[in-house]
Amino acid sequence: MTNIILCGGSGTRLWPVSRTLMPKQFVKLFDNRSLFQLTVERNAKLCESQFIVSNAEQYFLALDQLEELPHTDTEYLLEPVGRNTAPAIALACMALDPEEIVLVTPSDHLIKDREAYSKVIEQAQRLAFEDHLVTFGITPKYAETGFGYIEAEGLDVKAFHEKPDSQTAQMYLDAGNYYWNSGMFCFKAGIFLEELKKYASSIHEASQTAFENAAKEEMIRIKHDDMLSILEESIDYAVMEKSDRVKVVPADIGWSDLGSFDALYEELDKDQNGNTLNPNHVSIGSKNNLIYGNERKIATVDIEDTIIVDTGDALLISKKGSSQKVKEVVAEIRKNTELHHIHLTGHRPWGTYTVLEENDGYKIKRIEVKPGKRLSLQKHYHRNEHWIVLSGSATVTVNDEEYIVNPNESTYIKAGDIHRLENKGKLPLVIIEAQVGEYTGEDDIVRFEDDFKRVEK
Hints:
The chain is an alpha+beta fold.
């Protein structure tokens, strides 16, 4: 069995913890493990291999986090643009043996009861072996209006239902045969593709063309125009709501999609006053609060039932019960800032950078380059750069010249110079970069060569 892990999504309801370039599945929320890492660990015990579907940015995050786990047999498929779950799953299945049973899972769900999880996966695997398309129905604990529901009769699916209002959700809960739609699936790769071709032939045809045209080297890389030609559709709409092969396995597995800070609060450890545990929190008479932040001390006085999230460059304060409205905050922020997109520390395939200070006309960064890695050969139109080496040894290319810069030494890159920073050593290279110019945005970059295939065509 192969675990197809879907890594798309930006998790905007967990902003400012989750950003486009560091979505919630890669944030280390539980014992220094991310939801992505927990997904890999959980399913590695049940599946022989893993197939990760992501975009290019998340691919590098996944690579970094997999290095911290025991080795697994892993393949990758990179989407230049997301087209929802039906195309993502189809493209992955096209790379597999038609008889291979696949377990399709999101990468951002929390599952606490691993023993119960193993049992429902075994049940689903048996049904998939009999050529059924299996979905997992989460046993509901309360009348939730934020999930879709599956109406079942035994293991047979009677109907899929959209997110209900509160009165309908309570009716579903009282009926006892309705389940939350988990977004997890199990089936043979070939059977799913047969049903996709039957019920969504245009998606199947466009996906087949995109797969055949894809670059297949270290990973499968779909071409941008081919991906755009595929209809954007979920697996539920495209196949599961139409096929007569669908079965549902009830799953009481300690599941949460962590779709809000209210949901996250329920899963985090708390002190005797109901505040989430945080060494940076000083509490005076405060109760039942979610306190998240490791940048600085957070002091609360007589505060109750509040969500406080501090990430250094953004501060969120919300009443508990209202955190679903965070997506409205993100919509406002998108209008005039990049705070929805990236943290102060940005992760790149070659290492990280942290913005230390930024103002009109300048930006100061701390840059760390991994051993053996190098940035793209590039130039900037609007900024000059000053590099000061703190530790390690920098190999610097400027136009046709290459030279070494050691600790306590510096170099200067003029706007328009074609340049590259490289770490040929065995230890991390750390530099301070001072950018000076009329524009210091991250999009002022032209790449000529890149080890990570990020050169614009």
